[in-house]
Amino acid sequence: MITMVTRNVVDKLWPVIDPAIEEALPPYADKDSTAMNNVREEIVKGGVQVWLVTDIGEDNRPVLYATLLTMMATDTITGTKNLELYAMYGYNEMDMRTWLDVKRTLVEYAKMEGCRRLVAFTNNEAVVGMVGKLGGAVEYKYLVLEVDHE
After folding, report:
1. Is the dihedral of CA 39, 40, 45, 47 positive or negative?
2. DSSP string, 40-105
3. Beta bridge partners of 88
4. What's the confidence (pLDDT) of residue 127?
5. What percent of the chain stands above pLDDT 90?
6. Could you tell me which of 47, 65, 109 has the C-alpha nearest to residue 83?
7. What is the pLDDT of residue 37?
């Protein structure tokens, strides 16, 4: 099951999701206290959505599979609006049923928000393979060059 976290409970969950979000930030994002304060602020303002992927384990206790961050990403040149899966941190391996639920929920949310696509980038080969199995295109490379500020 995937659930969007309401903004009013972010403070309660922050100690649990903060380390996961920091670990999962994209390669172009800084990973320091200022950056994490900015992330938290964007979540509280509603510019970023937090999703928790959970289920009930064999012992009837909740299992946390993943924390995801999404945001509306509008290409300012073309005006194309997409839902970007900005960051994803996995705690436990997800089965196909769970992946399908995540895809269905995020696609429905993207449609509701007027988005054309669900987009993401990753260097995790397991995620790349799963996106292929889910019918997604895995065609591009994301390039990063550091700018020296000495």
Report:
1. positive
2. HHHHHHTSSEEEEEEEE-TTSSEEEEEEEEEEEEE-TTT--EEEEEEEEEESSPPPHHHHHHHHHH
3. 68
4. 74
5. 60
6. 109
7. 95
Average pLDDT over residues 77-100: 92
Which DSSP string do the residues of 94-150 spell out, in sequence order?
Answer: PPHHHHHHHHHHHHHHHHHTT-S-EEE----HHHHHHHHHTT---------------
Fold classification of 2-133 (topology level): Aminopeptidase (3.40.630)
Q: pTM here? A: 0.86
- Tell me how crowded residue 53 is: count the other CB atoms within 10 A of its CB: 23
Output the six-digit token pair for 46. 């509603």
Structure tokens at 55: 């289920």
Residue 74 contacts by C-beta under 8 Å, 6 or more apart in sequence?
80, 81, 82
3-state class (DSSP) for residue 3: strand
Confidence of residue 70 (pLDDT cuts 50, 70, 90): very high
